[in-house]
Amino acid sequence: MSGQPEIGIRLLDPRLPGWGFPRWGSAGSAGLDLHACLDAPMLLEPQAAPALVPAGFCVLIRDPDWCGLVLPRSGRGHRDGLVMGNGTGVIDADYEGPLLISAWNRNPAPGPGIRIEPGERIAQLVFTRVTRPRLVIEDDPGTVGSARGAGGFGSSGR
């Protein structure tokens, strides 16, 4: 499939349209804003277990040439330490369940918690193409393949 895919959105939380969902922050933004669909404020303590925050909708990608990536918002991540508990969330084309945001306070303990308000934009969803190369099992498992690979992890220096 070429061009822009058509991706369905199934709203689960009726408050989302009032919060401005769905929208990109600007005409040049790559990420679709994701809102915290909470009934009450949430406090993430530093270094505590990540919390799953409902985004209030299901995304229906369906085209296996595309996927979604759930990423932190730059400002909250850098300024406040609010990041994704799983680094990056991958939404496969065949997943159509509720979208959840794994939110984590990366700040050292002890320290202040991060407060998340209902409706607050806490993450972003970026859609990207997927490539599945044909993998070939090599006959000789003893060779590394290149001089650079022989040095191992981090061998290229700084």
Automatic annotation (TrEMBL):
<comment type="similarity">
    <text>Belongs to the dUTPase family.</text>
</comment>
<dbReference type="InterPro" id="IPR033704">
    <property type="entry name" value="dUTPase_trimeric"/>
</dbReference>
<protein>
    <recommendedName>
        <fullName>dUTP diphosphatase</fullName>
        <ecNumber>3.6.1.23</ecNumber>
    </recommendedName>
</protein>
<feature type="domain" description="dUTPase-like">
    <location>
        <begin position="22"/>
        <end position="157"/>
    </location>
</feature>
<dbReference type="Pfam" id="PF00692">
    <property type="entry name" value="dUTPase"/>
</dbReference>
<dbReference type="InterPro" id="IPR036157">
    <property type="entry name" value="dUTPase-like_sf"/>
</dbReference>
<keyword id="KW-0378">Hydrolase</keyword>
<keyword id="KW-0546">Nucleotide metabolism</keyword>
<feature type="compositionally biased region" description="Gly residues">
    <location>
        <begin position="148"/>
        <end position="158"/>
    </location>
</feature>
<feature type="region of interest" description="Disordered">
    <location>
        <begin position="139"/>
        <end position="158"/>
    </location>
</feature>
<dbReference type="InterPro" id="IPR008181">
    <property type="entry name" value="dUTPase"/>
</dbReference>
<dbReference type="InterPro" id="IPR029054">
    <property type="entry name" value="dUTPase-like"/>
</dbReference>
